[in-house]
Amino acid sequence: MLDMPYGELKLGQQRVSHGRTITETDVVNFCMLTGNWLELHANAEFAKKTLYGQRLVQGGLIFVIVNALLGFEHSLIEAFYGVDKLRFIKPTFINDTLYAHTEIIGLRDKGEQHGVATLLLRGVNQRDETVLSCEFSLLVRRIPLQDKQVHTLREAT
């Protein structure tokens, strides 16, 4: 969703991503990857007796999926620069569909070749509820990498 060089970005620019439905497979794979087998995520019978009456999707998984929905342009993004004020506002459940809503809230120069763009990033579900909110910063190039440079980077990863 950041598809312009740093110098072309403007405060207040907003975007909404395509949707992504969270599946049972996502939750189980994240349990396997992280070792987070907390019963609230992994045990349906246990989760029935909790505040929400069903399993919750792990906050870490929600953060990773929502920021990935931004759709990074490889020729422009140099690096993830940080996250601040991360909050999980509402629970996310298996089969919820999430969208990334962004607004550019900060721009600052970072040397001659880059700038830091800070986005208000919100994860919003199909019920139009904000489930996640944070300030998400990226190091953005002023001049995109050329096609040959991008292909070299993709081959290296």
From TrEMBL:
InterPro entries: HotDog_dom_sf (IPR029069), MaoC-like_dom (IPR002539), MCH/BMMD (IPR052342). Transmembrane segments: none annotated. Coiled coil: none annotated. Residues 16-117 form the MaoC-like domain. It holds the Pfam family MaoC_dehydratas. This is Dehydratase. It comes from Candidimonas nitroreducens.
